[in-house]
Amino acid sequence: MNSNRAVPEGLEEVADGVWLLTGDIKGAMNIYFIEGPDGEIVQFDAGTRAMTKKNRQVIEEFGGIDRVVLGHAHADHRGTAPGLGLPVYCHPDEVADARSADAIAPYMNIKELECAPVRWIFPFLMRRWDGGPVEIAGTVEEGDEVAGFKVMHFPGHAPGLIGLWRESDRVALVSDVVYFVDSARMKPLPEGEASVPHPAWAWDHQKAKESVRKLAALEPKVVAAGHEHPLRGENLREVLLKAADKY
Hints:
This protein is 23% helix and 23% strand. The protein has 6 helices and 15 strands. The strands form 3 sheets. The protein has a 7-stranded mixed β-sheet, with no helix packed on it. It has a 6-stranded mixed β-sheet with strand order 8-9-10-11-14-15, with no helix packed on it. Helix 5 packs antiparallel against helix 6. It starts with 11 loop residues before the first strand and ends with a helix. The mean pLDDT is 96.
């Protein structure tokens, strides 16, 4: 990291050269900024539309950034992207959904949610969160490097869901590979717990479970997800293996 770089006010430091911007409902929507070894600054995920003003302010305070990489293209992860005027990248399997005008992915089955109020409100929320279609400038795949992190493909919750992995300090930015909230009831999980996303949100729930196990096998010390604050610890592997069997 460039020690002389001014870090915008209001960002939470996740790890060396990694910062978190939170916003929207209870501050539970996450956008990450990463400074690579060559000084490149990349935004990972794009939160919700309501975060656009703050997102643009942070970019301005950084003195500009280089590109946006989407963890996946759900409404609460692409929301600010159309309003930033920056090149946006995603996994090849996520391009169609990123460019789609639909706020709700066609494979989502909200009727599977057990909690009736959540079933009723989520279609409204997804449309509120969404910033609309995103023009994709290019793609990234497993093994590619982004700002000193390795791209990892974690399909399941979405077909082209990716995370970013830095082995040197075992930091994983994982978008929605795991949740630190109960995604069926919109409530935080007890501190230190995690969960595979509910099947209602999944493109392929079995693959989603496999992806959580793939993440566990990396033995991360920091797991920074798309919602709520990062999870830290020396034995996150066991936490993640339990998370894979939540649903």
